[in-house]
């Protein structure tokens, strides 16, 4: 005997040009059934002059109501604040920053499901944490991804409908992007662990995620600079040939208030180290030497 149910554990996948486009499609789908939805977003959304804001641009362009829920200084969701702001018309966006689901992800998802509150998972950084790690992306009706943030691609996004009742003509049941995802998962985890052990020896910084739990495929390794000017460190490291980024160095205007002082603090002090599949331990050793020189550690 063999499995015969074609729809059992099926996920309908739709390839888009970007995660932003996938998110816009999801918002439009919810608007078809309720024009009075309010999207509830985490209060950590970046903006840049070149790219705008991937998450927030879709929301503004949709012209729906929106609000923000608070996070702490490790980007952990303030569950009580979230509960105080949700309603039957809410669409809650859960963002798995840097590939890490919230420490209370399952508790939050269960709460929203039990109270019949719709939520969407932003796995732009967490695609491989989903498809290989299996630790996120499956509890919501819709999930979306940014392929180029984990693979050597110029662009590309994906929208997934979990457990669809039927596959619509606009959905594709496969992706034509062929990589050894497990090896990418494994290398990123090894690089993260090696680098984090080196960084733990430095007293001037705080690791947002000092431990790498099972199933997580990190997008980058984020730290908080406790003493040094983040912008200076960023430019000096990049001028030396090390591709650090700051996700996110500038918040959208709607978050620029003292109500969100935790995430404003993070945005002013965060810097992200690369741990992708194209680097090895030797590259990391050289990066650490330069980093310690720059911050005088």
Question: Could you describe the 3D structure shown?
Answer:
It is a single chain. By secondary structure, the chain is α/β, with parallel strands linked by helices. The protein has 2 domains: 12-161, Aspartate Aminotransferase, domain 2; 181-296, Aspartate Aminotransferase, domain 1. Helix content is 33%, strand content 17%. It has a 7-stranded mixed sheet with strand order 1-7-6-5-4-2-3, sandwiched between helices. The chain has a 3-stranded antiparallel sheet with strand order 8-9-10. The radius of gyration is 19 Å and the shape is globular. The model has no long low-confidence stretch (mean pLDDT 93).
CATH C-level category of the largest domain: Alpha Beta
Task: Give me the oligomer status.
Answer: single chain
- The geometry reads as globular
Helix content: 25-40%
- The beta-strand count equals 10
Strand content: 15-25%
Q: What is the CATH topology assignment of the largest domain?
A: Aspartate Aminotransferase, domain 2
Q: Sheet bearing the most strands, described? A: 7 strands, mixed
CATH homologous superfamily (4th level) name of the largest domain: Type I PLP-dependent aspartate aminotransferase-like (Major domain)
Class derived from helix and strand content: alpha/beta
Low-confidence stretches: none
Terminus-to-terminus distance: 63 Å
Using only C-alpha atoms, the radius of gyration works out to 19 Å
Q: Write down the overall mean pLDDT.
A: 93
Order of SSEs, N→C?
A: EHEHEHEHEHEEHEEHHEH
């Amino acid at each position: 005997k063999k499995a015969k149910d074609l729809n059992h554990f099926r996920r309908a996948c739709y390839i888009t040009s970007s995660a932003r486009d996938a998110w816009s499609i999801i918002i439009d789908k919810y608007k078809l059934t309720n024009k009075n939805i309010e999207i509830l977003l985490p209060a950590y959304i970046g903006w840049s002059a070149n790219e705008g804001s991937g998450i927030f641009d879709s929301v503004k362009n949709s012209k729906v109501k929106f609000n923000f829920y608070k996070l702490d200084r490790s980007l952990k969701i303030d569950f009580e604040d979230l509960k105080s702001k949700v309603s039957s018309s809410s669409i809650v966006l859960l963002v798995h920053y840097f590939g890490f689901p919230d420490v209370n992800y399952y508790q939050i998802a269960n709460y929203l499901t039990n109270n019949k509150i719709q939520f969407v998972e932003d796995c732009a950084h967490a695609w491989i944490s989903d498809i290989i790690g299996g630790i996120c992306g499956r509890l919501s009706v819709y999930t979306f991804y940014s392929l180029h943030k984990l693979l050597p691609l110029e662009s590309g996004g994906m929208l997934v409908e979990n457990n669809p009742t039927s596959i619509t003509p606009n959905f594709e049941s496969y992706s034509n992007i062929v990589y050894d995802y497990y090896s990418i998962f494994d290398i990123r985890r090894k690089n993260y662990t090696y680098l984090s052990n080196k960084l733990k020896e430095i007293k001037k910084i705080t690791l947002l995620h000092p431990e790498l739990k099972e199933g997580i495929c990190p997008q980058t390794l984020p730290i908080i600079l406790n003493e040094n000017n983040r912008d200076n460190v960023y430019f000096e490291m990049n001028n030396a040939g090390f591709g650090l980024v700051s996700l996110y160095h500038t918040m959208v205007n709607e978050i620029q208030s003292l109500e969100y002082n935790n995430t404003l603090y993070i945005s002013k002090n965060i810097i992200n180290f690369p741990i992708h599949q194209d680097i090895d331990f030797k590259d990391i050793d050289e990066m650490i030497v330069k980093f310690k020189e720059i911050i005088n550690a």
